[in-house]
User: Fold this.
Amino acid sequence: YVGSNTVIKSCRIIKDVNVGSYAYIKGANKLKNLTILSDEHAPSQVGEGVELVNGILGYQTRVFYGVKAVCFILGNNSNLKYGARLLHSYLGDNSTVSCCEVLNSLVFPFHEQHHNNSFLIAANIGGQSNMAAGANIGSNHNTRGADGELQAKRGFWPALSSSLKYNCSFASFTLITKGSYPNELNLKIPFSMIGYNEAKRTLNVMPAYWWMYNRYALERNKWKFSTRDKRYYKSQPIETDYISIDTMDEILSALDYLSLIAGQTVVKEGRVTLDDTPNKSTLLELGRTLLDEKSPLLDNLEFLTYDIERSKRPTRILKIKEGYHGYIEMLIFGCMRIILTYMKERNLTIEEFESLVDESMKMQNSSISLGIQSPVVNLGGLLVSEASVKVLIKDIESGIISSWQLVHEVQDYWKIMFNDIKAAKALISLRTLTHSKERIPFSSLRDRCIELAKENARQVECSRKKDFEQPFRNTVYRSEEEKRVVLGTIKDDSFVTTSDKEMKQLIEIALSFPC
Assistant:
C-alpha cells in the first residue's frame, strides 16, 4: 500500500511495504516488510543507499545515507543516518543515531549517538542519553553465553573511549568519565560522576556531581528536551524534569546510603565509640547526624565501599559531605518547584493541597495511592509506579482489559494523572526528608526554595561563563574583539536568560503563598 502524495523514485527493491501519505522515498537499495507511518502533518523520509528489513518507522522519521536496519522500531521524529546500523532494537522518539552500531537494545526517547566508532549492544537505556565517540558499551562479552546486558536509567552519559564490562546497572543521570572499567558495576546513587583512577587503580564516585558542578547542563537538558520535542503526534509521554517520581526515590535512598557509609567509617576509624555492637540502623543514624551537622569528625577521612564494583578493591566516595547536602538541596528545590507550580495552577493553599493528598492516600488502590509507591518503572518515557503496572497486568490476566485499545486507554489515564501523582510524591518526599508525619514545614521550605532558585540562576550563569573566561579559549583568537564576534557574550546565551527568567517566576510564585 502507498498513500496519497507519496513520492517513490530510484529504488532497487521494494517488497511488502506499507507507506503512509506524504512520504518521500528516494534511492533506497532495499525496503522489505516495512510499515512507514507518514501523513500530511508528520511526513517521513527515506534516502539514498539504505537497506531496511522487518521494521516500523514512526511519524516524522528520517532515514538516509547508507543506513542498515533489521528487525527494528523507530519512534516518532527519530533519525538514522550516515551508515548507522540498527539491528533487533527499539529507538525511542526524538532520538538520533548516526555512524555507529546499536544492536539488541531498548533505547528510550531523546537518545543521541553520533560517532562512527561507538557501540551500544544488549542495553536498556532510559533515554535523555548521549553516547560519546569511542564508547564501547557491550561488545566485550565476559560470560559463557550471550546473556550479559546493561541497564541505565535516564540521563546516561558515558564519555569518550569509555568501555564497560557487563553486567552493569546505573542510576539516573550517571556521568562516566573516560577510561576502561574492567569490572561489573552497580551504581545506585543518582546524578553522580564515576571515574577510574589509573594511578591508584580504584573506582571513584562523586555523588550529586551534576548539581554541584554542572548546573548549566542539568537545567539546560530539562529545557532542551522539552523545546526540541517536535513530534506532531505525542502519543508517547516523555518526562523531562530531572527531579521526578523516579529520582525522588533515588535521592532519598542515596541519602541513606551515604549516611551508612559515613557512620561505618567514623566507627571503623575510631573517631566515634559506641557502647553496643553497632547495627545498620545505628550506623545510619550516626552518619546522618554527622552529615547533617557537617561534623569535623568527617574531615580527612577516606570513605570506602565494596558494593559498587565487583572487585576486592574498594570504591572511594568523594566529597561525601558536599554530595549529601547537594542531594538535600536538589530534593527541596525540585519538590518545592513542583508543589508551588501545582498549587498555583489549581489555586490551592498548602493546607488544601496536603489535605487532598492525604484523602487520596486513604483510598486503597486509588491512582494517587498506587502512583506514589516505589519502585518506579520507565515505560518508554512515561514514569509509572510498579504497583500501577502490576494492577494493569493483573487486569489483563483476569480479562478485565482484553484489547490493545483498553491498554492504551490506561496509558492515557496515567498520562492525565501524572502531574497529580508527581505533586503528591513531591509532598511525600519532603515529609520523608523533614521527618514530618502530617504537615511539612512549608514556611522554611518555601524560604529555602527561594534561596536555591536565586543560587540556581547564579550557578547556571557561572557554569556557562567559564566557557567565555577560560584563558586557553583565547589561544585561537587574535584579540578579545575577534573572540567576542565569534562566540558572543554570556548575555547572548538564550538559555541563561531563559533560566534566569524561570527562576524569577518561581520566586514570584513562592512569594504569592503566605507563610
Observations:
- Residues 15 and 32 are 5 Å apart (CA to CA).
- The first strand starts at residue 7 and ends at 9.
